[in-house]
Amino acid sequence: MLLGERVNEGPFDHVTIDNVAASRGVIAHLAGLGRQRIAAIGDQPYETGETAQFRTQGYLEGLEIACLPADRRLIVPASRFHREAGAQAMRQLLELRNPPDAVFCYNDLLAAGAIRVLLAAGLRVPEDVAVAGFDDIEEGHYSTPTLTSLAPDKRRIAAMAVEQLFRRLEGAADDPRVLQAPFELQARESTLGRATPATPS
Amino acid sequence: MLLGERVNEGPFDHVTIDNVAASRGVIAHLAGLGRQRIAAIGDQPYETGETAQFRTQGYLEGLEIACLPADRRLIVPASRFHREAGAQAMRQLLELRNPPDAVFCYNDLLAAGAIRVLLAAGLRVPEDVAVAGFDDIEEGHYSTPTLTSLAPDKRRIAAMAVEQLFRRLEGAADDPRVLQAPFELQARESTLGRATPATPS
Question: Rounded to an integer, what distance in angstroms lies between the CA atom of residue B74 and that of residue A151?
Answer without folding.
Answer: 37
